Amino acid sequence: MGYSLTYQPLTTQEKVGSGSLVGDGVPPVMSVSSKPVLFSALFTSLYTPLAQQLPREPMEWRRSCGRAPKMIHLEANFVQFKEELLPKEGNKALLTFPFLHIYWTDCCDTEVYKASVRDNMMRWQGNLRLHGSADWVIVVVETSDAKKKNKTNILPRSSLVDKIRNDFCNKHNDRCVVLSDPLKNSSRSQESWSAFLLKLRTLLLMSFTQNLGRFEEDMRTLREKRNQPGWSFCDYFMVQEELAFVFEMLQQFEDALLQYDELDALFTQYVLNFGAGDAANWLGSFCSPVKSWTGLLLRRPIDMEKRDGIQRGQASLLELRSYLFCRQCTLLIFLQRPWEVTQRALELLHNCVQELCLLEVSMMEGALDCWVFLSCLEVLHRIEGCCDQAQLEANVSHTVGLWAYATDKLKSLGYMCGLVSEKGPLSLELNRTVDLLAGLEDEKAETVHSLQSPYKKLKEALSSVEAFERHYLELSHAAVEMYTAIGRMRSARLIGKSLAEFYMRKGDPEQAESFLQNALRSYVSEGWSLPVTHTRKQMAECQKLLGKTENYLQTSALLAGDANLTNEERIHFCQEILTFANQSTDSKGKQPVALSMSSFAQLKQLQFRPATATVHSGTALQVELCLRSLMPVAVPLEQLAASVHLNLEQGETNGKTRGPQRRPYPGTVLFPLGNSSAMPPSAAGPSLELEEIQDRSSSDPRTLNSTGMVCKNTHLVMRRHDSSPSPDMPNLVSPVPVVMDDGAKMLMSGDVTVLPGNNSIVFSSQELGTYTLRQLCATVGQVQFVLPHISPLVQYEVYSQEPQLTVEPLTDQLLAGLPQRAKVRLQTGHYTVKKGDALQLTNIDSMPILTSSSCPATILNSTRVDESVLFIQSSDKVTSISLPPTPPYHTLEFQLEVLCVIPSDPVRPENQRLTNGEIHYRPRSYSHPDNHMAAINQRMSVDCPWSIYSTPISLTFYIPFKAKHSLLSAGNSKQSQSVYCVWDVRWKENMPVCLQCVFSASFSSASEEVSAFKPYHYEFQLERVTTLYSVRAEIMPAAGQQNCHSGSLCGLEMSITRLAEPDDDEEDGGTEEKGQTETEEVCSTKLMYEVAGSSWVVYGRSSGLVSMPADANANHRVQVELMPLFAGHLPFPDIKVFKYLPPSANSASQPDTDGCVENDILSLMDRPLDDQGDTASFCSQGSVHSVGSGEQQSRVLPMPRLEPFSPGQVFNHSQGCQVLVLPSTDDHVLEINAT
């Protein structure tokens, strides 16, 4: 006996796990009915482990078309085989399709098999073949109890199975499976059971894959026929949804969601085509009027009511969309993507509104708002049910859109039902409320026990004015807080603006003001023109109700100049201002209302006449303003005034044009214009102040490592505009008070009519000073329009100049000794030169004025030039110049001829003297930087008729000659060189101590005649020119060498010879010495020598004292060791000889700074330490210690002194001599010094 069980999926049912909805699959249920009680009991015992263990192990599911394999768990539903369960032709149902047919038998007797079991199997297979089902399997169950009962008639199990395989499974041997003792726990039974489960999973997956592929192909074929007549979207919807159910049964939620997304996209495309004129016939069923607006229902995995309506083709557009989104929401929650539900929900609600308009679906007024409101809250409640509070707070950005949309729809319903008016709803509005509530139908069973269900909230909100206000404010404030928390300030301001409208409808403008203020500030800072205009209109209404006159007038002025409004609206707001101004003129004593001028007019251009913006006193300066009126009508002004500020630091002017920060071209200043329809120029924020920065290499400044730009005003650019309003922004609800500066000077123009567009207004100013334009004020009755700051800075100057007298040379240089012409320029300033006025010049002997009786003069001003004549009279002390009459602020110019006498003996400082041509001469002023000519400053005083004080005049003359002399010596022979001439100086036996000399020459200008020669004298004197000492030096190589070698020591023998006996002067200098050497038998003179050379190194003493007898031809020899540093012809070392004056009390207490040369001693101290060792002979006397012991000690202890000899008194015969120095024996280094 055998029985057939068929595997097929059941209808879907909800499966709950882990506290949340995790799947809406099609779990299998085993259902079996068996005729024999024994087998029925056996299969019933197998059902539970079979249903539990079949989905336990995953199977790899490989699909066609290159889709990625997936691991799935198979769940099955077992039902008893019935012929009516087999699929009929044309039946595309996938959920009720039997994927695998199983024949169960426990027959072990051959006779029984032949008598009944084989026939049943044949009939079973015949039915399967008749319906085209090729997926089957025969299960032979072997039990030990059956063997015991039929021991005599049973065949070996292998023989019976072979018989079944031969009869039914010739081509498919794997279709016959043996299950041994499934109820026992033996190893053989477990192995047989595992093999059976694996076989069952494999066959089931193969059958499912094949049938699913055929189903998908049939579905695609059906979709391709969508353009044919008679095609129905609802039929196709049910087919593709079956595929989605199958994927959901396999827990392939992504694939199931894809099916619903394709259906969504397909339906949306048809709706868009309908709106474009391409209408499908089946869309007519969705265009029927909507009679129910219950909203989304997401608490059911499958809304069977709406699904049945779709299946019958009787669903409305909202029902189709609701069911489709419900299925998408369920799958998204299975996929742990709840925030995508909120995003899709918002898109769905907006799209449904558009689709209803495209399909022209008729709905009761307000029904769509009810549906949207209920749907928003349903989605939010569904998300709250599957997420905790922390997740909700962290993902406010995903849900805030639904809160805002629900708030907007509830507000619309409140307006529609008369719940936002001061008087309450009318009868018509009450009837509309009843009809709307009737369309909600009865509350669903899933939400009937929920106190915060969307249905209850809407019904309560529409029941009374107080309940509506409570719910609306609750939703609005929640949305504002959420938008603020996530930084979406624009959206928060928009809801706040909606709240302001609500309060205005309720007659509470005070509550509405703050919301409008925040919204307006945000719109202005971001430059939204139209929202600014609309919000200002609401602000004007609010301010008028609150009685805030100044703010209302300011807002009216802004609206009157707003180009976004119609001309009638602008005129209305302008008349509001003029009406208030005319009413206020009757009431005296009231303070005028100050408003910002940027809402009334804009300053475009300012022009000065003259263009320099600088005039002298007595002349009117004109300032022309170009004012662009923003008003739609002509506005009569009582006065237009410009406030000016006197610059104190420039109060005393001298006629120079100052400081206006100025202008694109001379005389004109252009002002930037803002967009008055949206906001003032300052609302756009400050401009960027950028500066380049460079990073250069520290080793090589020419190498640039990096460069960039830095913003210098980041604190202004990055400032949040909401929290720091500018005083120049008149668009705020509470503008900063704008007032004129108290006590400021004004430029006024009265009775001015300002027309729409550009207007020209002219001001005049004659007051002395440098002024800065600060403010502009237009007065209309008791209303003042004030421009608080004029930017950029604009200045003008009215000056009063004192007369100025200057004398300038006509050439680059004035030469002494020749007649020179100088230009005299008199700037009259505010003084008027009258007839008889004269300049009195004081004559000086060194610079006479070469005058004539008359002299031409020129009178100039900015526009013309006049010629005149002036007269000159000269006396011994004064030269008088009569001036022609000259108006103020003119320039009088004429020329004078002067002569500077060249001094024959230039003045020298007292501590310098002229000796033997060594002229320590410094000119009185300076030398010319180009030719080093000596300069002479000549000063004279001029008495002017406009001042009681004399005016000093200074002229600098340059001496065109540079004369100097020098003394040349060759032993006892003397020559004097002066001005490129050489004279041989000879004298008799008695040579004078001082010889006076004069050099004379004549000169003239190259352009003058020879008869105009003028003399030039150069005086000098010669003193102490006798040669007193001669110095000879000889360099000798080291012993055994013929020549000197570099790096080797050589010997220097120096001979000092006295050529003449000491004269009186020398004896006077040696008096002190004689007093200190009384014990010496012979009188002597102490000399100090010093040997130095850059090519030589001195070993031992480089300086020392020599005592020279007073006899003529006395000689003293000194030997010094030195070493040459280089090879070649080296010059002899320098040998210097000084007078050595021993220390004395008189010299210590009264040092003779003129005769004593202490610097020479100090020069020895300044040398390096190596050289200081060479001065041992000098240091031994304590002089160096005395010099370096400090200032206080030098005043107490006497100090030795050195005095140099005059030029020519010491003759060095070795000066200019050279000695041959050979290189050292080192062959690797060769140094040659060529001199």
TrEMBL record:
Sequence ranges assigned to domain TRAPPC10/Trs130 N-terminal in this UniProt record: 41-341
Q: Which PANTHER family match?
A: EPILEPSY HOLOPROSENCEPHALY CANDIDATE 1/TMEM1, TRAFFICKING PROTEIN PARTICLE COMPLEX SUBUNIT 10
The protein's matches in InterPro entries, at most eight in alphabetical order, are given as: Ig_TRAPPC10, TPR-like_helical_dom_sf, TRAPPC10/Trs130, TRAPPC10/Trs130_C, TRAPPC10/Trs130_N
| Biased segments, Low complexity type | 676-687
Spell out the protein name for this chain.
Answer: Trafficking protein particle complex subunit 10
Q: What biological-process terms (Gene Ontology) are attached?
A: early endosome to Golgi transport; intra-Golgi vesicle-mediated transport
**Native species:** Oncorhynchus kisutch (Coho salmon)
Return the annotated region ranges for Disordered. 674-707
- Tell me yes or no: is Nuclease among this UniProt entry's keywords: no
As for subcellular location, the record says: Golgi apparatus
